[in-house]
């Protein structure tokens, strides 16, 4: 019969491939496997295996996911009895403090500006409210996630936060001794001031406090190493747009407008921020471009706004700022968004087979085209 210590060591090796979905590290690296014990079974030649698991916090929202993965890894081991014993508890305060301190020391503040970072960062901006900027952000983030990209999104519109509602989020981020775990919905890791207690009250922040909110979202939240980070900016060219440029100089700006001149003229101003800060304008998205009615395209809000913004920014900035997408006006974008599901997704979370989803898919792939974002 195989030695019990060898079995325990081999099971530990198997568990090193079980990844905590929030921290993106193996449960063994995080110290979550407190003990493994293998004893001969009374009913077979196999061993009864007991695994003591210490989760990061009591009532961890992903505890069932983690324990199921651990259970599966142990149950598939050939010398283990069919049903392992998983004993779940939470880490001591000191052990958790040491873990968080180690993670913070490794990350060293804003993780998106360190050398070698591969995260593509897109700041979604608009000159004025009401053009569907947050809807574009939500559906674009959901599209990236459905395409297999590790996707994160920050609701940087502190005054008019919308992403929690659009993603159906009603929970708060898990707090690990001062380090926050973003809430995951429809495959997207999210953070928003709207997730915290009292967020329904009026927010009267300015200047340094507003900038500090973005810094906290970047440095006090454990993002891992996402492929894509989207920021839903407040309308206009105020403090938050400048803060994003200062904190994330590698961010690329995507300007959202609607077709009518009153929106497109103001949208140009949001793109011209790039003249004052080190941020490249990646392109323009025209939202609510047309409405399909009995096979006819009705231009309810006029036409040409996206092209005007594209042409004016190209001339002012000295490099091509393309019109990347013209999105239709669809009632289901509002209806599914209010129900907490981005309209590009089917109910199972996959990318829907619709013209809208295909438009967002093309936009997402165009944005991720590494060769096309260089000036």
UniProtKB/TrEMBL annotation:
Gene3D superfamilies: Fe-S cluster assembly (FSCA), P-loop containing nucleotide triphosphate hydrolases. GO terms for biological process: iron-sulfur cluster assembly. The keyword Nucleotide-binding applies. Residues 8-78 form the MIP18 family-like domain. The keyword Cytoplasm does not apply. InterPro entries: FSCA_dom_sf (IPR034904), MIP18-like (IPR002744), Mrp/NBP35_ATP-bd (IPR019591), NUBPL-like (IPR044304), P-loop_NTPase (IPR027417), YlxH/NBP35 (IPR033756). One of its GO terms (molecular function) is ATP hydrolysis activity. ATP binds at residues 127-134. Pfam families: FeS_assembly_P, ParA. Belongs to the Mrp/NBP35 ATP-binding proteins family. Homodimer. Binds and transfers iron-sulfur (Fe-S) clusters to target apoproteins. Can hydrolyze ATP. This is Iron-sulfur cluster carrier protein.
